[in-house]
Design a protein that fits this description.
STM4215-like; six-stranded antiparallel beta sheet; two-stranded antiparallel sheet; 5 helices; about 40% strand
Length: about 180
């Protein structure tokens, strides 16, 4: 699993308190699961809730939530774009220690694809494809639909994509398994 390591590194590099006190950050995974189907490929998906615990934090808990959402935008964007998962995307709890400090726990559910292929040595290799990314949409343009004889049967202008995005799916190259 690569995402928990990526998330930990991101939080430590982004939040001043954790830069100074990385030992105050712990992460736990409980009740994770794997999914695979009976397709011709051997790949699978790991799905797991991650509890992120920050101890003795004297700052605003919203700081951690904000930074966490910035990581989610790139590494688990469906937690923000899917209206159903968005409802419970980031859960949190706080243990108020005194008037200045709290122990904070955030929980998010991550998923991670694992591509498994047999290599030339007849052993298996695991790779972890990148997550889909949002990119600015194409500029408005005119489109034409032609029939088999080259006759235009429809034409239209696409809408202005100002502030719109497209989801770009990273595809792994096809090779024999």
């Amino acid at each position: 699993m690569n995402k928990p390591h990526s998330l930990r590194e991101y939080l430590i590099n982004s939040i001043e308190y954790l830069k100074i006190n990385p030992d105050k950050l712990s992460m736990h995974i409980e009740n994770g699961r794997y999914r695979s189907t009976m397709t011709s490929g051997l790949s699978m998906m790991a799905i797991y809730p991650v509890k992120i615990i920050v101890q003795d934090f004297a700052g605003d808990a919203n700081t951690i939530a904000f930074v966490l959402y910035q990581w989610i935008r790139t590494h688990q964007s469906e937690l923000m774009t899917n209206l159903e998962t968005n409802k419970d995307a980031v859960k949190f709890e706080a243990d108020i220690i005194d008037n200045t400090k709290a122990d904070l726990m955030f929980e998010i559910e991550l998923s991670e694809r694992v591509i498994i292929k047999k290599n030339e040595l007849d052993t298996y290799e695991f790779t972890y494809p990148p997550e889909p990314q949002y990119e600015p949409a194409f500029a408005a343009q005119t489109y034409e639909l032609v029939d088999e004889n080259g006759v235009i049967v429809a034409n239209w202008q696409s809408t202005d994509p100002e502030h719109k995005t497209d989801l770009t799916m990273p595809f792994t190259s096809k090779s024999s398994v």
